Amino acid sequence: MLERALAIVAARPALHPSWKVELEANLAILEAQVGNYAIARDRGVAALASLEAIIGPDDPGLIEALILVGYAERGLGELDASAEHMRRAVTIAKRGLGPSHPSTANPRIELANTEVARGHTREAIALFERVIADGEADPNHERRLVAEASLALADVLAKTGELPRAKKLAASARDLFGALEGLEA
User: Fold this and answer.
1) What b/e string do you get for 82-103 counting C-beta neighbours within 10 Å, with b at 16 or more?
2) Residue 1, helix vs strand vs coil
3) According to the model, what pLDDT value does residue 22 have?
4) Is pTM beyond 0.90 here?
5) Among 55, 59, 74, 64, which residue's Cα sits nearest to residue 29?
6) Which region, left, alpha or beta, applies to residue 163 given φ > 0 means left and ψ of -120 to 50 means alpha?
7) What residues have CB less than 8 Å from 158, skipping those under 6 apart?
């Protein structure tokens, strides 16, 4: 259905170009969700290029598209390219929104996950720790992302032998996720 909508939008150039970008990005997300990372990457790159042409190369509106492309690249094992896109998303978020803004958390987590995949443990730990510290300092941070960073950091630390700290972070993540489930119930 989305592909049909994309064809309709493409056939009507008078429609706003952002509609095509939105549809292309949604198709990329669907492809990534089912493991079609090459198709997701290609659709994501197309959406990113179109979006850059509309809003410019440094607009925070690019963050989600950059993460999408980086995620697909990580799924393909293209870790250097993934890190480049994720790093750019973090840079744009920090520059456009502020270094501790809650919207910097997701790009940092995704970059950290890529750094873990690359074997860059220290870099990943620093990124996860920054998300957690920002979340503790600002109640406006999305708790789900703080919990996600805590759990991912616990996993990395457990693999490096830092079990007491890993257990503490895992318990913190469990509590955060539990509190979120209580809110959703």
Assistant:
1) bbbbbbbbbbbbbebeeeebbb
2) coil
3) 85
4) no
5) 64
6) alpha
7) 166, 170
